[in-house]
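A brief tutorial aside. Many learners find it easier to grasp structure tokens once they have seen a single protein encoded end to end. The record that follows does exactly this for Dihydrodipicolinate synthase family protein. Read the sequence first, then the structure, and try to relate runs of similar tokens to stretches of the chain.
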Amino acid sequence: MKLQGIYPPITTPFDHAGNLYVTKVQHNVEQWNKTTLSGYVVCGSTGEDVFLSTDEKFTLWELVAKYAAPEKLLIVGAGVESVKQTVCLANRAAEMGYHAALIRTPHYFKNQMTQPATQMLYFRSVADQAKIPVLIYNWPQMTGVDLPAEAVAALSEHPNILGIKDSSGSIQRVM
């Protein structure tokens, strides 16, 4: 798989009671389908993934998959702290028709996760077991964990790691 085009991180609409606004999800996806967007990133940071229950995530994932045009590629934010749960989420998304999983750097145990060897073990373990390709999500401002360029280069050799979304804000990292 090769990513080309624009994949916006979509927002998650809520009603006045704070519940997932199902009809608005459908409306939004149908409107985005009329554009030249290549696909959508569902449950990324902009989609308020960390505030959704597992049931709400699954409902949102199902709705977007149901209403997305067939030519749109779907990427799901599925990263959590444990390898096991991250793999479960990614594989559930695969069953719903998602094409790739955006996996953030786990960060709760920062002392361990700041070690490149631990970071690489986490992402390789997820990629080894995920049924869809993995995109690494590096956002050190929010996680407090930054993936060094050397670790990213080593991870890029994994056949199920598709790429990286680097939100570090450092232009030097991508040059």
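Self-check: The chain has a mean pLDDT of 95. If you spotted this yourself, you are ready for the next section.
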